[in-house]
Specification:
CATH class: Alpha Beta
Helix content: 25-40%
Strand order of the largest sheet: 1-2-3-4-6-7-11-10-9
CATH superfamily: Gcn5-related N-acetyltransferase (GNAT)
Distance between the termini: 20 Å
Number of helices: 9
Amino acid sequence: MSHSFVPLVSENLELRFARDESEIRSAQKLRYSVFMEEMGAQSNSSLMDTDSFDLYCNHLLVIDRLRPLEDRVVGTYRLLGRDEAAKAGQFYSASEYDLTPLLAFKGNILEVGRSCVHKEYRKRATMQLLWRGLAEYALANDIDILFGCASFPGVDIEQHRHLLSFLHHYHLAPPALRVHALPLKGMGMNLCPLTDLEPNLARCIGQLPPLIKGYLRVGGLVGADAVVDSAFNTTDIFILVQMQHLSNRYDQRFRPQGSKE
């Protein structure tokens, strides 16, 4: 897939794709800082979060041009298309979920993951840059569906039962696109009845992790099951966004009224 688009700039922040191995390593260092040092994930690598998929992904970066060169990456996403996944052997999320419904889909699909932002930059401007870059990339490559894993902190599913049930009752993907966990990997998310949720819908929405909340704002839908990832100290859900919803949101937020670009 092409990843050539004009870098996006907001004050001292610039969003573009990694240009060389050193910038990918900087993204891996940021991922280590967030996932391992902050969230308690396990790692076999010192000071970098790496895996075999990095070689096949495009790495979207938010760079603070005022920081020292080695620490300029303050936000990142990695993107994996169907052709690149074939070279890698599978999509990353296939280690937890049976992707048969998506693999059978005739349109273009794109896996997004390893999203994280430096703790000092978790603000609106940074997230808007990441979302805008993701939207422009997807539009430029005629992507129909974005998908990947998103996470709740911790491995106690009971702690998240109301939020998982909320997602099941209000944002479940249709059967044709509904992904299930691999056998013995996950459990259903319908953990409490709808009547328990209805008085507390606003609270449920407010308690969702920011990334999951962001996906829902652009029409995100969830798979059938949650999966405990002990290595990353998270409870994962499968989420997908049909590009028609994201492109409408993109038009409303980032393009001038009347623009046909």
